[in-house]
């Protein structure tokens, strides 16, 4: 491996790729930008054999700085794996990186990691409201995977005349359900969300009557420890309660299989 | 859902914004070198705004942002990476993203009030809160020491 990676880069890439010294090697300022205009920096780490070109986790950190979600969705992780496969890049401990066994491979590795980083950062465009990659999006993926028919985000008129948004209008061969997804990362926001569901179910209660009555489901995102027993009790009389950590049971409920208490 | 420039200015000018908890850096979901925290911001007006910090000591790079639940990031401070504005100006490695209806959070400026080093996240946080008119009643711990990672 050449002792001067910057010379190897300069020979193969335009001057827009700038090299500066870094603790473990060199930092490479690329000409590429994340969706908000921040520049993509890569790092050539040569204190190991073979050296690597890595983003040092900056791309995923950038992505996480745009959202309140504590974790990526399974779909987003799947997309990252697919991006890495396309560009022959490794995703390890949050880092996008590629091994460089020979100086002649350095420029190509920089371009591969750059392109992978840009595509991963573009997952930002898939955030439904940019701040939350919501559990509702995961529910949508789940329903698609199970082949369950649904309409998302429909509005229904309550007895009061007020219109209420419902996350999912789900139809199986057995019955039809309205599902509200209750999700937040904040304990102080939890009760207002439950109150909204209670008001929704109360005002739409006329839809639970008749031979084609609708089933109401309050689906709690219990992957965050924000809910109190009182929260479950508030909606229990007005709807079925289901939990995202037990999504198979949620699917059973949509098919009319009662959830054991 | 977006917000207007006027609403943004109102949020930023609201001196009742407060974080009441102590903040602790936590590992991210990948257990990388990066650490992060998220904090709810209380205010008299009840703005749906949260603060988030992320720190990568390996780069090093540090980011503090205000995230509006509907609009996403509306304000942010970045240290450790340069920024390119829509008018093709390069701002520098210490820059603040601010909100504008036309370009959302894509425009940044070089702040005069951030003088602390990227490797001093606690002092940068203090300076960030001051300019954002954000009162932090608790404390922010220092990030944990970095454990050198084997890359391959």
Give Rg of chain B in angstroms. Answer: 16 Å
Q: What is the overall pLDDT average of chain A? A: 89
Residue-averaged pLDDT of chain B: 91
Classify the helix fraction of chain B into a percent range: 10-25%
Query: Assembly state here?
Result: heterodimer
Number of helices, where a helix is a run of at least 4 consecutive DSSP H or I residues of chain A: 8
How many domains of chain B? 1
**CATH T-level topology of the largest domain in chain A:** Trna Endonuclease, Chain: A, domain 1
The general outline of chain A is elongated
CA-to-CA gap between the ends of chain A? 64 Å
User: Into which percentage range does the β-strand content of chain B fall?
Assistant: 25-35%
Tell me the radius of gyration of chain A.
Answer: 25 Å
Textual characterization of the structure:
Chain A has helices at residues 5-12, 58-64, 74-87, 106-121, 135-146, 187-203, 229-236, 247-254; strands at residues 18-22, 25-33, 39-45, 52-54, 90-92, 95-99, 149-152, 155-157, 163-165, 168-171, 176-182, 214-220, 240-243. With 261 residues, chain A is of the alpha+beta class. Chain A folds into 2 domains: 5-124; 130-254, Trna Endonuclease, Chain: A, domain 1 (3-Layer(aba) Sandwich). A 6-stranded antiparallel β-sheet of chain A has the order 1-2-3-4-6-5. Chain A has a 5-stranded mixed β-sheet with strand order 7-10-11-12-13, sandwiched between helices. In chain A, strand 2 and strand 3 (39-45) form a beta hairpin. The longest helix of chain A has 17 residues, at 187-203. The relative contact order of chain A is 0.10. The mean pLDDT of chain A is 89. By secondary structure, chain B is of the alpha+beta class. Chain B has one domain (5-136). Helices cover 13% and strands 32% of the residues of chain B. Chain B contains 2 helices and 9 strands. In chain B, the strands form 2 sheets. In chain B, strands 2-3-4-5-6-7-8 form a 7-stranded antiparallel β-sheet, covered by helices on one side. Classes of the chains: A alpha+beta (261), B alpha+beta (152). The interface between A and B is large, with 42 and 43 residues.
